[in-house]
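ok so i was messing around last nite and threw this chain in just to see what happens. nothing serious, just curious
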Amino acid sequence: MVLRLLVIVLGSLTLAVPALAITGGAIDGDQHPAVGMLLGDRGNGPEPACSAALVSSTVVLTAGHCTARMPSNRVWVSFDTRYDPRTSELLTGTAYTDPLFNHDRGDMHELGVVVLDEPVADITPLALPTADSLATPPEALVAVGYGYADRETGGGPPTYAYDGFRRFVETPLKAVTPTTAITSSTGGGTCFGDSGGPRLLDSTVLAVTFSGDAVCAGQATSYRVDTPSARAFLSQFVALP
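result:
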């Protein structure tokens, strides 16, 4: 069943305006099976929180604000192509946030990981980049995630549809800073539901989505995972190339 929620309701999920779902994209199906949904328990059992990416058989990568704002570090991840609270398979794990998250405006350390209790045997993990891979930026990156999509306007505040599908969209890469990758939402992009989802070049995660604009129509910012600070955090959990 499609739920239509006012953006003001979704504001409770935001960090500065975290990006939480793909707009203007396509239903993913089995194209990116290593991209999953991160769920936490705020008192009502597992509830969708963010998107995430499997980067080893036991390690799932997401955004720092996704793990930092969880009521507990015990979380769930689902890799179903469409999340259904009644039937989706949930994998349990422990979440960790970069301890420097949100302490430095020059480098937000916007990374978190989930270490799964059991390895995932039937999904090939996405690759992590070599150091400074974005020194030569590609023209575009692919965003993948779950959440709210199909922004509708007219007759009041914008509304968004949520149907639980994993979606993807290719967006132009506009700029690269020492810690971030900034993409355009021309023709589609991220919205409420995609924080923590990967920014991909082929099967390599170059960055993690963490913010966008309030109406899901402008540029979005992702945290690079090829920098010295990102690699220092990630190396504690997964082997890096």
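not much to say yet. The helical segments are 7-10, 64-68, 228-234.
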